Amino acid sequence: MASFRALPLAMFILAIAFHPGLADGTFSESMYFNWGAQHSSILGNGDDLQLVLDRTSGSGVQSKGAFLFGSIEMLIKLVPGNSAGTVTANYLSSTGTKHDEIDFEFLGNSSGQPYTIHTNIYTQGIGNREQQFRPWFDPTADFHNYTIHWNPTEVVWYIDGLPIRVFRNYQSEGIAYPNQQGMRIYSSLWNADNWATRGGLVKIDWNIAPFIARFRCFRARACQWDGPVSISQCASPTPANWWTSPTYRQLSYGKLGQMKWVRDNYMIYNYCKDTKRFNGQMPPECFKPQY
Ligand SMILES: *[C@@H]1O[C@H](CO)[C@@H](O)[C@H](O)[C@H]1NC(C)=O
Ligand SMILES: *[C@@H]1O[C@H](CO)[C@@H](O)[C@H](O)[C@H]1NC(C)=O
């Protein structure tokens, strides 16, 4: 009997103790420059970030906190004009040799040529899961919404609300999933002209530097991670843990249709189709439904 009466109280305390941290702040509250601060800036009311790449260096910010599951939103306006050789990135990453990472990267190009939107995911230190897309819009003309949804069931990459890629949790079948360690959020702009544009053929034109990428409305509705915690703590079904709610377990038919449209028309590289690269030994998740 006593334990029955104690239960609601215990649940209440648990709900408070593990209420997901909402890193809902601005750049100035939630992030700091880890690179190139001298020539980059946070503007406006702390919600506008400008990253600069010039001959001296690129630049980047990272979140103060680490997160385990959440929805990470960023509006980005990419380097306009001749951006060949530059890479703008927005990604989540943990540290160490068995790190997890979820990437959005944008490979610049010569004026009038299309950007490449590059995605990847590392689990327990293993990556090599690239999928690339062409934007169906001009990513330099305006801000677009690049969001990563990451919950215990799946990771979804979204652009302007359209899902473009899913990586589902098949841990029960021996495929590692990013659910063991917290990741920080990183945004950066750097020189990658040894590989980024047409495989490194097109170099940065320093005469037109500085290159500027703009970020705004950073939002992490995410579970704060403060060291090793059990997954059940982060995923406990308090009302605020929206990412475990049924609507986030699988994409709706409407969203699946949108994803098919993007992948049928704008996907330019899929590691799961690259049999030559993997010598016929395709990664196991390539044989599983990814939606
Ligand atoms: C960005 O996209 C995500 C995913 O579709 C959505 O939940 C969010 O409301 C969007 N944010 C903005 C500022 O448009
Ligand atoms: C740049 O444009 C060329 C020509 O259209 C294209 O082949 C290439 O994939 C584009 N993107 C990058 C990052 O090289």
UniProtKB/TrEMBL annotation:
GO-annotated molecular function: hydrolase activity, acting on glycosyl bonds; xyloglucan:xyloglucosyl transferase activity
Annotated transmembrane regions: none
Alphabetical UniProt keywords: Apoplast, Cell wall, Cell wall biogenesis/degradation, Disulfide bond, Glycoprotein, Glycosidase, Hydrolase, Secreted, Signal, Transferase
The keyword Heme belongs to this UniProt entry's keyword annotation: no
Residues of this chain annotated as glycosylated in UniProt: N109
Protein name: Xyloglucan endotransglucosylase/hydrolase
Upper lineage: Eukaryota, Viridiplantae, Streptophyta, Embryophyta, Tracheophyta
Family annotation (Pfam families): Glyco_hydro_16, XET_C
Species, as recorded: Ilex paraguariensis
EC number: 2.4.1.207
